[in-house]
Structure formats: C-alpha cells, structure tokens
Specification:
globular; Sulfite Oxidase, Chain A, domain 2; 20% helix; binds the ligand Nc1nc2c(c(=O)[nH]1)N[C@H]1C(S)=C(S)[C@@H](COP(=O)(O)O)O[C@H]1N2; 298 residues; five-stranded mixed beta sheet; binds molybdenum atom; 12 strands; single chain; 21% strand
Length: 298
C-alpha cells in the first residue's frame, strides 16, 4: 500500500512541519493536500531522501556546476510573478499562471525515484499535477506529436547563464505519449512545501523513468509541435545523450557504466544498487517503446 507523507517523513521533520503549519508560517503549496495526505498509487514505498539531501545536492547549471552551487545561489531567483507560455499546436495558446496550471486543490503527492545520468539517485516526495491535465486544458491539436520545454533565461539572476557551459536556455522535449503518461508530472512542491528554488521553482517537469536531465526546471515555455525537439544535452553531446534518455542499465554511457547507482544518503558503506530498466517503472512505461531498439534510440 502506498505510504502517506506522514508515514515516510522522519518524525523530527514531521513535527517541524506541524509546527510550521500551526504557525501559519507561509502560503503553503498544498494546504489541502498536507491535511489529507492523499496517497498515490504511482508512489514508491521506498524511503525518501531527507529534505536536507534533496535541497543540497543538485544539478542546476544555471547556478553553477557544483552540486552545492544551486543551494547557495538559487535563492536569488525571483519566482513571483511567473507565467508559462503554452503555444504551438494548441487550441488555447497563452500565458498561464502557475496557480492556474497547478491549483492547490489538484495537487498530488508522488514519491518517485530520480536517477541521474551521472549514476547517483534519490527518492523525492514531489507535489504536483499530471502534465496530461495541463495539456488537455491547452487543447492539443491533432497534428501535435511532441512537447518542447524551455527554462527561464535570466542571466542577472542565473549566473551560470553568463558562461557558455550549455546552450542557454536549457531545453527539453518529450514525445506526446510520454508527456501524456500518468507518471509524468509538473511539480510545484516537495515534502509538502513550495518547491525550493534549487529544485526548479516555481514549476518543473518530473519524468521518473528517464535520466534526471529530462526533468527540466523552472519552466517558462511549453510548445506543442510535430517535429522532434532537440534537447540541450543532446545538442551538446549527441553520442552521449539521446532524445529518449530512458534509464537503461544495459546501455552504458560512453564514459561510465549505467549498471549500478549510488543512492545519495546511503553512506560510505551503503554500497551500490542495481539500476533498473526504466528506473523500475517498466510495468507502466515499457509499452511506449514496443518495437524500438533502445540501444539505438538511447
Ligand atoms: N534547467 C535545468 N533543468 C535541469 C538541470 C539543469 O541544469 N538545468 N539539471 C537536470 C539534471 S542533470 C538533474 S539530475 C535534475 C536534478 O534535479 P534535482 O536537483 O531537483 O534533484 O534536474 C535536471 N533539470
Ligand atoms: Mo542528472
């Protein structure tokens, strides 16, 4: 049975959280959810990483390349006001507010594994909404086959964008059926709070069966298209990073094995875990790739 947030949260944090609610300390991301703890059949029952781990070990190159750079620098990003431009092959293009895309009463908790292509992993209790519902609201037109995403470009607040580390803004893409899959969410929170900036505030993609780089942060643009978009990492190193980027222990990165992973927080003696096909979500997503050669379409 899927666990509730209160079951999986270390007692200390849970009590802190209760104190936080009692103090009415903030406009919470999900007051309704926090009280009902609506569990999800899509959640793993594995123990989530701590908030400390999830918010201090990040990849967010807009703030630097070290794992601790985002925690130190992303606080400077102004995420309010924020809007997401939805366009391309949709019936209702326009500028959507975050609260409009992910209203408090629609938020769900999804406890997902996150497997970075660098071979480390975490378990993160996201709060968000299925991307499918957002796309349905925008009205996907019949000819659309892919969804392209873009991160904010604001070098004044994202110091990494002043350097040619990547081809800014960061871009990602999904095939339409991947985007519509019920596991695919837009997250606006984690651990029952609004999303910390270093995790991609105010709204980011989470696609748990793909390498972490597909889960693009701080999204400002979503475009429906009939052409396969080129994502940032794919454009940088096409031999190393493909469009699909499904977690696959049988297809090694040219420079390292993908057979195992290091769970953050497992400690020095935690050992490595076997990486699972589709990051363990194969029962739910393998059908999307029937007939494809995943060594070729990596
Ligand atoms: N815009 C943007 N999105 C991004 C990245 C980035 O550098 N910039 N890094 C990606 C990578 S490589 C990973 S593993 C995840 C990490 O998410 P987390 O820091 O919330 O765990 O974010 C992904 N989304
Ligand atoms: Mo990653």
């Amino acid at each position: 049975m899927p666990l509730r947030w209160s079951d999986v949260t270390p007692k200390k944090d849970y009590l802190n959280r209760r104190a936080f609610i009692a103090a009415g300390a903030a406009a919470l991301a999900a007051p309704a959810w926090a009280l009902t703890g609506k569990p999800s059949p899509y959640s793993t029952d594995q123990t989530p990483n701590t908030l400390e781990e999830i918010t201090n070990y990040n990849n967010f190159y807009e703030f630097g390349m070290d794992k601790t750079d985002p925690a130190r620098r992303a606080g400077a990003l102004d995420t309010d006001p924020w809007s997401v431009e939805i366009g391309g092959m949709v019936d209702r293009p326009g500028s959507y507010a975050v609260d409009d895309l992910a209203p408090a009463n629609a938020l769900e908790e999804r406890i997902y594994r996150l497997r970075c292509v660098e071979a480390w992993s975490m378990v993160i209790p996201w709060i968000g909404v299925p991307l499918a519902g957002v796309l349905d609201r925008a009205g996907v037109q019949p000819g659309a086959k892919f969804v392209a995403f873009e991160t904010l470009h604001r070098p004044e607040q994202m110091p990494g964008q002043n350097r040619p580390i990547l081809d800014w803004p960061y871009k990602e893409g999904l095939r339409l059926d991947e985007a519509m899959h019920p596991l695919t969410i837009l997250a606006t929170g984690l651990y029952g709070e609004a999303l910390p900036n270093q995790n991609g505030a105010p709204i980011r993609l989470v696609v748990p069966w793909k390498y972490g780089f597909k889960s693009i942060k701080s999204i400002v643009r979503i475009t429906l298209t009939d052409r396969q978009p080129v994502s940032t990492w794919q454009a940088m190193q096409p031999r190393e990073y493909g469009f699909y980027a499904n977690v696959n222990p049988q297809v090694d990165h040219p420079r390292w094995s993908q057979a195992t992973e290091r769970r953050i927080g497992a400690g020095l003696f935690g050992g490595r875990e076997e990486t699972l096909m589709f990051n363990g979500y194969g029962d739910q997503v393998a059908r999307l790739y029937a007939g494809m050669d995943l060594a070729k379409d990596y």
